[in-house]
Amino acid sequence: SGGGRMNLLLNLIRDSLEELIKGLAGSLNMTQQMEDLNEALTLMEVPGRNPFHTASWEKFAWPSTKGLMQWFADSILRVDQLDEWTETLQLPYSLWMGALFNPTSFLTAIKQVVSRSTGSALDQMSTETHFSTMMEKSEATKYPENGTYVHGIYMEGARWNTEGYDIKDVSGTSTQGAVAESRPKELYPAMPLMYIKAVPIQPSWDPQSVGYIRPEPFLYNCPVYYTVFRGPVFIFTATLMTDALNPNACTLAGVALMFSLTD
Fold first, then answer.
1. How many other C-beta atoms can be found within 10 angstroms of the C-beta atom of residue 26?
2. Given Cys at both, which of 104, 106, 202, 241 links 178, Cβ 3.0 to 4.6 Å?
3. pLDDT band at residue 207, thresholds of 50, 70 and 90?
4. Which of helix, strand or coil describes residue 83?
5. Is the C-alpha dihedral spanning 25, 29, 33, 36 positive or negative?
6. C-beta separation of 44 from 68 below 8 A
7. How many CA atoms, within 13 angstroms, populate the side-chain half-sphere of residue 228?
8. What is the CA radius of gyration of the chain?
9. Helices in the chain by DSSP H: which ranges?
10. Alpha-carbon span 113 to 125, nearest angstrom
11. How far, in Å, CA of 221 to CA of 223, rounded?
């Protein structure tokens, strides 16, 4: 579970720091692990980021490109969400999905819940995404139908434009906007709350290794990544409305969504 993995990481951080303090004070012999940990902390680097170091916090953590200070601040926010979740034992109205150790299993859980309630087969379920009119997680005051709200998402290669678009109702959730060309010097614009909805797979959808690719000409099948590093930290494929910036243009621009930035 996420809580168990977080406890494992926090215990590792505490124990390794206590050992290092004793080593620097002369109470313990300095090992190679302690030397590597000391070097990483001196360089303000997350221990384990250097592949030649034997001391690693990163191996037990989540994918990240942040420096040590930002990474530690990020870890505190993740602990806060887990604390809030375990206290109430209820899913928040809007979840910071990027704080999960395994976001893909959360998506599977959404499909499982909906497949049970609708009597559909799990292997016949997929997800589609819509961007709501809400920008802050506090604006979400109820659970959406057959899915969940998630926040803390950024776009690269484009932006989300709501100007001139009517508000559309999707299963009781107000949605608005489409992908548009990015503005100068705006590298990673923050996105509204995303509505991830479990839906039955349609015959026209193309099954690929990254999920089901939708054929609708106005939809961009957008890759969602954990970090700006992309590649091996792929999570799932989102479905985004397009307009002037059509799906082909989005693909050429490398438009993608991510849950974590470098700073």
1. 8
2. 241
3. very high
4. helix
5. positive
6. yes
7. 13
8. 21
9. 2-25, 32-42, 68-88, 103-118, 247-253
10. 11
11. 7
Q: What are the tokens at 48?
A: 């384990």
Q: Read off the amino acid at residue 250.
A: C
Dihedral sign of CA atoms 196, 103, 125, 217 in order: positive
Structure tokens at 11: 């215990």
Q: What is the pTM of this model?
A: 0.90
| Burial annotation 199-232 (CB, 10 A radius, 16+ → b, else e) | beeeeebeeeeebbebeeeebbbbbbbbbbeeee
Single-letter amino acid code for the residue at 239 = T
As a whole number of angstroms, the distance between CA 108 and CA 104 comes to 6
Contacts (Cβ under 8 Å, ≥6 apart) of 22: 28
Query: Per-residue pLDDT tens for 227-239?
Result: 998 888 999 999 9
* Residue 120: pLDDT over 80: yes
User: Percent of the chain, pLDDT > 90?
Assistant: 86
Q: Which of 248, 26, 30, 213 minimizes the C-alpha distance to 128?
A: 213
Name the average pLDDT for the chain. Answer: 93
Whose structure tokens read 């953590």?
Answer: 61
Task: Give pLDDT tens digits for 16-33.
Answer: 999 999 999 999 999 999
Count of residues making up the chain: 263
- Which H helix or E strand runs over 165? none
DSSP code, position 146:
T
Residue 152's nearest CA partner among 100, 192, 196 is: 192
pLDDT in tens, 35-45: 999 999 999 99
